[in-house]
Amino acid sequence: MAENAKLMQGNEACTMGAIAAGLQFFAGYPITPSTEIAEMCSEELPKFGGKFIQMEDEIGSIAACIGASLTGKKAMTATSGPGFSLMQESIGYASLCEIPVVIVNVQRMGPSTGMPTSPAQGDIMQARWGTHGDHQIIALAPGNVKECFELTFKAFAYAEAYRVPVIVLADEVISHMREKVILPDPSSYKIPMRAMPTSPAGYKPYGADPDGGVPLMAPFGQGYRWHCTGLFHDESGAPSGKAAVADKLLRRLERKIEKNAQVLEDYYAESMEDCDIAVVSFGSSAMAALSAVRRARKEGHKAGMLRLKTIWPFPDAALRRLSASAKKIIVPEMNLGQLALEVERAIHGKAEVIKLGKVTGELFHPDEIYQALKEAF
Amino acid sequence: MRTEFRLSGSGGQGLLLAGIVLAEAAILEGKNAVQTQSYGPEARGGSSKAEVVISEDEIDYPKATDPDYLLALTADSYKTYGPLMKGGLIVVDSSVSLDSEIKARTLSLPILAAAADTVGKKVTANIVALGVLAGLAGLATRGTLRKAVTARVPKGTEELNLKALDVGLGLAAQSGIPSASLK
């Protein structure tokens, strides 16, 4: 066996991805099925001077992460649906104040306490619109254990580059599953760093190109004085109620992510080139889907698989490009059609979208998706 | 070729650990392995299930779809998962009464008793069961299994668990079913 091949759990890989990206601060309130991330952070972070804090709840957890990030540290929290709901107000604050932070949401069956140990994928829209007001967010969905590492690493890169909260949208199956993983050589990592000012003189904390520019971020505690507020603010950071200031700020924040949508798109595609029927899915549902698509292909049916790794911003262009030949698109997901809605919007009537929602608290069996494919052909 | 194991019983019996060791032994033998689980909200006493899929090829779907081996350590798990067995072999603890409605080939072995009496610790039943499954499936050499067990069990319990492994391998050898000839 390869020397570094290891049986690794999704949550473990996620934690290692964060540490590889330079995680220095974790604050969290343990919740199934994300608990292993908090456990591992509590063991690993102190080994290299990082900080782990178990907070009183999820509201405190995200707030502590935001505070740590403002001092220049890379910060992460991990939770599941109920905790993610509690974090929404502060996610809005981080979004408006442009504070990098990574939030791992290991989805479980909801709403409410739901079925705590059962998988689901019902937080797609919560990830996008859980906090109020127009805002941009990035959400990445790992489809296997290795991607728990890779996409958590990427989450930090995006958070730092765009000064935006990034959600790692995992699910119980992916995060609790263990599989053989060979991780890249640590010396190959390019550690993501935010752009910082070089001198406090004339520093404008929110000065940036109105067309989606990202301002330089000065760490608190190093001689920079600036105002960080959830009120709308001008380039100096001072609160402002002026119409022009508000408009300029919100449009810049929108453009910041929107204009990079194609840079951010990430997916796995198989047999899409000539497919008559495409299956579009993500996370653990996509594992069942891939198995079904391969079986259909073996039997001579032109089925294709598109597994989205970037969920937000939704990869409209990639979806349209890759499913150009598809007459029908089946969307298996462990919710009642949240992804299917987006697929329908993006595909613009060019293909029939078939919802395949499952809310039993169990992962799809490949036969269920194979059956849907057979019916569609 | 894909080999699927379903290990079922009660929370606290250590079946998840047995599943992890099974998967790690397969990896040590150069194969691919995926382990998944499902469990109730209870830490002890609820239902618990661990699944391991082992293959030379890429594993696209991580759960067992048609298990080659079902381990059932409790009557509940036997009744829940036994009827789902199409082919494959059921390994059930001999404390569980067999149900004539469950048609799959069944091997009743004194796993819990062997752990308590032969090994001398009831809690080693998971590793005895691991030995049984690995022996029947011809999954890995004894040396590889010993390495995998040693790497995962709590420090200070290595000798005890290695004894449990040997007891399990012994039960498999005496079962009259030739190793890995079931396919």
UniProtKB/TrEMBL annotation, chain A:
One of its GO terms (molecular function) is 2-oxoglutarate synthase activity. The keyword Electron transport does not apply. Residues 17-242 form the Pyruvate flavodoxin/ferredoxin oxidoreductase pyrimidine binding domain. It holds the Pfam family PFOR_II. It is an enzyme of class 1 (oxidoreductase). One of its GO terms (biological process) is response to oxidative stress. Residues 276-369 form the Pyruvate:ferredoxin oxidoreductase core domain. Its EC number is 1.2.7.3. Keywords: Oxidoreductase. This is 2-oxoglutarate oxidoreductase subunit KorA. It comes from bioreactor metagenome. The lineage of its organism: unclassified sequences, metagenomes, ecological metagenomes. The gene is korA_2.
TrEMBL record, chain B:
InterPro entries: 2-oxoglutarate_synth_KorC (IPR052554), Pyrv/ketoisovalerate_OxRed_cat (IPR019752), Pyrv_flavodox_OxRed_cen (IPR002869). SUPFAM superfamilies: Pyruvate-ferredoxin oxidoreductase, PFOR, domain III. GO terms for molecular function: oxidoreductase activity, acting on the aldehyde or oxo group of donors. Keywords: Oxidoreductase. Residues 11-168 form the Pyruvate/ketoisovalerate oxidoreductase catalytic domain. PANTHER family: 2-OXOGLUTARATE SYNTHASE SUBUNIT KORC. This is Pyruvate/ketoisovalerate oxidoreductase catalytic domain-containing protein.
